[in-house]
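Z., the sequence and structure:
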Amino acid sequence: MSNRPKVAFICVHNSCRSQIAEALGKHLAGDVFESYSAGTEIKHQINQDAVRLMKELYDIDMEKTQYSKLLTEIPPVDIAITMGCNVQCPHLSCKHREDWGLDDPTGKSDEEFKKVILAIEAKIKELKLRLKPK
């Protein structure tokens, strides 16, 4: 049984920013916390630009290990992080909640996408430092 804190990354559709955060959380901080992502609605597939760029930048294939899911499909979490879509998820109980205020890059250029991905990477690394056992 893992005693690592569970972190949920939450977006409306769970198809882009929250999926990137889940993938980078597992990739960069899996030794410190467990990453999950979910939304209040779901899409039939993960954003294809996000999938392509994550393969290009990190060699991570999100479609192999992740899918769009609802809040009810993830285990109880310690920390809930909303991506910046003003989503209120009052039924998701957690010890700590924060909002990362990231713009949705869906439909925008690769440059805009990469800015958001790099911002998520920086925030994941910062979260890892905060959660690392002293």
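The longest strand covers residues 6-11. The chain has one domain: 7-131.

Let me know what you think.
H.
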